[in-house]
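Hello again, I could really use a second opinion on something today. I've been staring at a protein lately and its backbone has me curious. Can you walk me through what the tokens say about the fold? Take your time with it, there's no hurry, and the full record follows here:
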Amino acid sequence: MASAKNPNSNAAARRAKLDEARRKERARERRSRIVTITAAVAVVAGLVVGGGYLMNAADEQDKAEEQAKTSPVTGERSWDDLTQEHVETPVDYPMNPPVGGDHNPVWMNCDADVYTDPIPNENAVHSLEHGAVWVTYNDKASDADVKALGERVGKTPYSLMSPVPDQKDPLVLSAWGKQVTVDSATDKRVAQFFTKYVQGPQTPEPGAACSGGVAG
């Protein structure tokens, strides 16, 4: 005659299976939490490192701009005591392109304006008085340099560009009382000249308009 199964034994077996299932579930939950925490730590660490990199990069850029503003531009020529009278007649300037002196009462538009034809010196000088940088070139300048400088001017308020066929050098940058000849559009002095003199300390009338004048 077969013996009856022990009900206590069956119950113990079920409890053991249930405990094992619960143990495995707790283990899975623990692994999941570890993965989640590890991922979160990695993201935070990445943000901290990335944020630190961006802050350092911004600091370096600020330092570079400050250095550009305070350091002399190599090869730069300067003129002091320039007159500022408004005149309706042509002016015989002692430098070409001119960097200051008497000028027309109306400025040349210099709100990132690129002119493909020569413009009147007297109007351009008025733009310099307002804090503009004037980029000029002759027929010896390469098409690539003219294009690249035109793109820079086209993105820079308080700047203008035009050909000056009779200037001595292919590429010249001028501000009020300041001028430099550059070798190419990639010459480091281009960026420095713009940083230093667009609405720079040499400006006789900072903040004056660069639009609403002569449009060329």
Q: What stands out?
A: Residues 7-70 form the longest helix (64 residues). The beta strands are 77-78, 111-114, 133-137, 159-163, 171-175, 178-181. Helices lie at 7-70, 121-129, 143-154, 188-197.
